[in-house]
Amino acid sequence: MIKLKIGTSKRALLDFWRRYRKNRAAVVGFLGVALALFIAVCAHVVYPYDPFGMRLQEAGQSYVTPSSEHVMGTDQFGRDVFGRTLYGIRTSLFVGVSAALISALLGITLGAIAGYKGGVTDEIIMRAVDANLTIPTFFLALVIVAMFGSSISFVALVIGFTMWPSTSRLIRAEFLLFKEQTFVESARAVGCGDAHIIFREILPNAIFPAVVNLSLQIAMAILDEVSLSFLGLGDPNQISLGMMLNEAMPSFRRAWWLGVFPGLVISALVISFNLVGDGINDALNPHLKER
Amino acid sequence: MLRIRGLKTYFFTSSGVVNAVDGVDLDIGKGETVGLVGESGSGKTVTALSIMRLIPQPPGRIVHGEVLLEGDDLLKKTEHEMRKIRGDRVAMSFQDPMTYLNPVIRVGDQIAEAIMLHQQASRSEAVKKAVDAMEMVQIPSAADRAREYPHQLSGGMRQRILIAIAICCNPDLLIADEPTTALDVITQDQILELMRDLKNRIGSSLLLITHDLGIVGELADHVAVMYAGNLLEYGDVNTILRRPRHPYTSGLLESTPRIDWGKRRLKMIPGTIPDMVHPPAGCRFHPRCAQAKASCVSEQPKLIEIEAGHMVACHTTK
Amino acid sequence: MRRYVLKRLLQAPALILLVAIINFTLIHIAPGDPAVYLAGSLGQARPIEFLENLRESMGLNRPLHEQLWIYLSRVFQGDFGYSYTHQRPVSVLILGRLASTVILMGVSLLISVVLGVLLGVAASKKPYSKVDNIITSTSLIVYSMPSFWVGIVFILIFAYQLGLFPVGGMRSMDPANPTLDILWHLILPATVLGLGRLALYMRLTRANMLEVLRQDYVTTAWAKGCDETKVYYGHALRNALLPVVTVVGFQFRFLLTGSVLVETVFSWPGIGHLLFVSVLERDYNLIMAIFFFGSAMVVIGNLLADLAYALLDPRIRYR
User: Fold this and answer.
1) Are A106 and A160 in contact (CB under 8 A)?
2) What's the CATH code of the domain at C232?
């Protein structure tokens, strides 16, 4: 598959959208993601009550089963689960997207350099990638967050830092293919520097796998964030869906809604991003689907 | 022993219908060797796969015809019945010995598998018979070789293994698809020798598929010439090779170098095989034929017996 | 094959060493006093003399490269410090629980791979059919669910509502048959952990099978008269499974991560649960020790998978 230098024309985007639309699952995923984003941005508008507010003093407010007033019930402090879920979506989305972007940034840069330069630089970066892929990185993230603090931005940073190797491998492969092509040679002949060639010439063509991967990485990052906060390592000032599940554990025998709903929402989020990622993949490579 | 009548096998693809085999009649007698000759894409392999009923169901389908194996129509058999026949009464060996052998199974076991499928043999008996088959195809130290994997053997050996798989159950009909094409000249010769020897020993009928007329001359009793899904000429090997009547056959012969020619320019048949989704009207060879007439474009010639046992499908032969 | 084996055998210890070095680095760049991190739970609450003693024995007052050497030699002698909350040396504590985690990981890996492969073969028989789509989408949905949530839901349904399985732990008080008792406790957590990666193996097997079924040697198998079962399982799967072995090796780290979460939900007494406890207690020393042991396990598992692959693929074994 020799790729010529392309620009993203409006036509190409429309074609892509048309192919994407045909895949019903991908569209569902897209709607899910859109909804999640909407909630994340406008949570406080949609849900005007204070999710932290405890209504212990009002009798009979804690452990309320799901009803018309509290769609998902309340927890042991009388807090409305539904509202807390909305804020939890915001947290997860923030961490997920930031981590994926950080991972993309690191992965693309390092992958590009490794693929383009080759030689010792390539070897070093590839060793780092190999090591990263063998070691349990979630553990590493856990250790770092435990020791260094669990503010939401830091957690996003750490998660992003554990995810860059897979992106870099993809980008490096693309660069290995591209650096032999003629348009690169001509750029070099004209006197363009390495940085220019990497970022202005090759990268616009090589970046596709990373874009495809982005949605899937967001899904993974969300799972990581939720897992970390489930273990007690989330940001204590934020509401996290994982944390909610952690708090649900001692009492979920009598209050099943505390355990079921947050996890349902997490699953919905992750599925949506996975479907979108798959959908993008299929839409960009239609020939792979044919028999 | 084998009678094919009106075989038509089509492939229904997204770009159109490919008439890979379009009305072929063929007879193979008991113990006889028939060479099926033609360029790549002429439909020879598809014919063979049709006999074995190994055509991939989408997109292919045998749309018409009869394939009578000793009076039994193979095209009417159920899949279950065909499985008993494949490898046992009709067996096939294939062109590329590297890709047609399973890389993770020992070669002896691959032969033994066929034996265990069709003969009531235990594992150890089957392995012994497999080694016998390997000796029959002249593989030295067969017992040791049987424990090896395909990648450890040379190309010639692998081809012998494929042949061994095909003959191990003494089939009534052996179909050999290009048995020598993937091999170097010296090995080709050895395989030819082997096949001649096997022919005499086992007595199965042989359908030899090839584009190499030299092999046909060595081994075959009769020759059938195929082009673009049609049978163009059929007859006794000596007749066909010495006095071909179809322009395509003569063209083929003239483009094959012969040792008694001395220095001579090879004559090529101009053009290439036609697009099988939209084959030429009338005689499918006419665009490349120097002797084409008006009737060649309008009407497809039928196979006519112009002399005893010699059939030709051409308007220019009378 | 010899070169291949040697290369992998050398990489493993290097990686384990790397993890130890990472731990060492973290201790020293983390905010605060390094001694606190080595002091076990409630490190900050320890009396000053205790911390001073610790500093001396760990050589924290010496130059950095000497400290590294001391640290590494302790690690490779198996000295990971002492746990006051659990009243025993850390290494003993961890090794005591290691077996439980290995059993959990092993059984769930079995479930994952066996079910995944079977589903993958089933899906490959009729690609793009309804059955295929159902299998593929269901496994994707399961793959997207956080394992600890699935665990909670399973406990709610199978343990509380239906009462079929115990709520947690590894053993009952006074079991009639101890082995069966453990198995009974094992089923729910192992299934939950196994479900997590099932989709991956299913997809992989399916893709490999589709690739392999197009190969020429499958035609030979049909021509011999093999039936569908023989062709799929005797010929195609043997080839399609080889890459799966390698992938299993790479998946060990996720298996370990998953076991932390699952052990926590089910109170399964392995090192994952221990990790959860040590996070609660802020016992950094124990956390890092578990990280080390966990990494070592994953590296060794990876190595074993690679060696298994070399043995299984005759093209590598008989070079």
Assistant:
1) yes
2) 1.10.3720.10
